[in-house]
Design brief:
The complex is a heterodimer. Chain A contains nine helices and no strands. Chain A is mainly α. In chain B, about 80% of the residues lie in helices and about 0% in strands. In chain B, α1 crosses α4, α3 crosses α4 and α6 runs antiparallel to α7. Chain B has seven helices and no strands. By secondary structure, chain B is mainly alpha-helical. Chain B starts with a helix and ends with a helix. The chains are: A mainly alpha, B mainly alpha. Chains A and B meet through α2, α3, α4, α5 and α6 of A and α1, α3, α4, α5 and α6 of B.
């Protein structure tokens, strides 16, 4: 069975929520809102969680779209999580999808900060609040590890040397040399433009 | 000029110019809201940074909300946040349109082929720094690996089993938060 068929099958088998329906928009809003509300950390943290939900749990889009959108979101001005949610929403359900995902992404911080602005001291030095946040952070870590390993496994399974080298090089650059992700993305885009035009890399 | 319009416009500009994401956007925000308009003090700005470290949401959105609230209450918060995301919205939709139109060109496809492995690597880097944070409470490579946080390890292991058992992401995040609270009370 082809990959796309499998994904469609997965989508139907999994939860049977068809993009574009009213129920779909509600589920999309609810899940994006909750993930945005429970995720502490930058864009590269929220993306694996959204990916887990949209791709693995609901099958609304695939790995490739998610990775493309993440790369573009990283390179554009503005906040990466917002950029990604705008494009993911559009990919799944057009302009309405965008409206739903962008609202669901910005409402939780908007509400949280409005409240916290009044209770900052109480919040920042409370032991139980810190433990709650610490727990959620560990949960997010587990999801990122899972999504990361899964993507690495798929990358190596394709057995194409150049993409694997790009991944290893980028990993070392960002981890050991703290290179800004935007420069990594820029360099890898140029490498891709020059060396990866062959359809076998698509 | 009407203060709400000014907030909208200023945060539009911040949204447009904060390239690089995350901490790279801090100087831009500071230049506008602290140095130029004196909407908030430097101390408050550092507070926003601290809050952003421990609450959901990107620092840009948090800063927009905080400054907006301070200058013009809740309407200010809404207007500033909307201003901040307006450039993103326009640029992202424009790019999506261009991708639809020119996405089949081999140059675009090649570029994306180079970007996909890069994103995989960046997600792995984020994962690793989150492991340091969860288990060793430090943002970079731990200097002393024996100095770990037992609560962090317990929750992380349970969460990893839950991921393997296909527990939904939201249940998982919520459950881990509760687990952190319970362990904090017990230990």
């Amino acid at each position: 069975m082809s990959n796309e068929n499998q994904q469609l099958d997965n989508a139907v088998n999994k939860l049977n929520i068809v993009p574009g329906t009213r129920h779909f928009f509600w589920v999309l809003f609810k899940s994006t809102f909750l993930i945005s509300a429970f995720t502490v950390g930058g864009g590269m943290v929220i993306i694996p969680l959204l990916k887990k939900k949209y791709v693995d749990e609901y099958g609304w889009i695939d790995d490739k779209d998610t990775l493309d959108i993440t790369a573009i979101a990283q390179s554009l001005p503005g906040v990466m999580a917002v950029n990604a949610s705008i494009m993911l929403g559009y990919k799944m359900a057009g302009f309405m999808g965008t409206l739903v995902t962008i609202l669901a992404t910005i409402l939780p911080p908007l509400i949280t900060i409005t409240i916290i602005a009044f209770f900052y001291d109480l919040f920042a030095h409370n032991y139980y609040v810190q433990m709650l946040l610490k727990g959620m952070q560990c949960g997010a870590t587990a999801v990122i590890i899972d999504v990361g390993l899964n993507l690495v496994y798929k990358l190596f399974k394709k057995k194409l040397l150049l993409p694997i080298l790009i991944a290893i090089g980028t990993f070392i650059a960002s981890l050991c040399f703290n290179v800004n992700p935007m420069y990594c993305v820029l360099v890898d885009a140029i490498i891709g433009l020059m060396l990866l035009r062959d359809p076998k890399y698509n | 000029m009407n203060i709400l319009l000014l907030l909208y416009w200023e945060f539009c500009k911040i949204g447009l110019f904060c390239v690089g994401g995350g901490y790279a956007s801090l100087p831009w925000i500071q230049a506008a809201v602290v140095d130029n308009y004196h909407w908030i003090t430097m101390t408050e700005f550092i507070d926003i940074f601290t809050i952003s470290q421990m609450t959901p949401g990107p620092i840009g959105i948090n800063a927009a909300t905080f400054v907006g609230t301070k200058i013009a209450g809740t309407p200010g918060a809404v207007v500033a946040t909307l201003g901040f995301v307006t450039p993103s919205l326009i640029l992202c939709l424009l790019i999506t349109y261009l991708m639809k139109k020119y996405g089949e060109l081999s140059a675009i496809k090649g570029t994306l082929n180079g970007l996909r492995p890069a994103v995989v690597a960046l997600i792995c880097t984020a994962g690793l720094s989150f492991i340091w944070l969860s288990v060793w409470n430090t943002e970079s490579v731990p200097t002393n690996f024996a100095d770990f946080d037992i609560k962090g390890i317990i929750i992380l292991l349970i969460a990893m089993i839950a991921v393997k058992k296909k527990v939904s992401v939201i249940t998982l995040l919520f459950g881990s938060g509760i687990a952190g609270l319970v362990l904090g009370l017990l230990m």
